[in-house]
Design brief:
alpha+beta, 28% strand
Length: 132
């Protein structure tokens, strides 16, 4: 099980740095910690479950999240950490899942970029209705 030592939210770059502790048996003084940086958009798109509670997997089911912000992180004990986003979505991310997102970043991100089209843009959408 991956243990998270610390989170650093960087609103300037819209990213989250996750600092992990290595297994005590594996750690050395030179490499006692390892960190990954994940964008808010990436975290939101590849949330462990969608808004209906279904596992998301490698295929993104959410688009239009380029501008999403991570507002808050709450500990939920042994289950992991609840990430609360500004689009009213929250989800629980375990340390293992965060580490998996870091390891599979290139594969997942490229798949997301390729699947983003005009209908499934990364940009936020604004619905305009004519009022009569």
């Amino acid at each position: 099980m991956s243990k998270v030592n610390r989170f650093v939210i960087n609103n300037t770059t819209a990213s989250l740095s996750v600092l992990f502790a290595n297994n005590e048996l594996e750690s050395t003084k030179q490499d006692s910690n390892k960190a990954i940086d994940l964008s808010f958009e990436y975290l939101r798109v590849f949330a462990p479950t969608d808004d209906k509670g279904q596992a998301t997997g490698l295929t993104p089911k959410v688009y239009h999240k380029k501008q999403v912000k991570l507002l808050k992180i709450e500990s939920v004990g042994k289950h992991g950490y609840r990430f609360i986003f500004d689009d009213n979505h929250s989800n629980i991310y375990s340390g293992d899942y965060l580490q998996l997102l870091g390891v599979e970043y290139q594969q997942r991100w490229q798949g997301y970029i390729q699947s983003a089209s005009a209908a499934n843009s990364r940009e936020a959408t604004i619905e305009i209705k004519e009022v009569k």
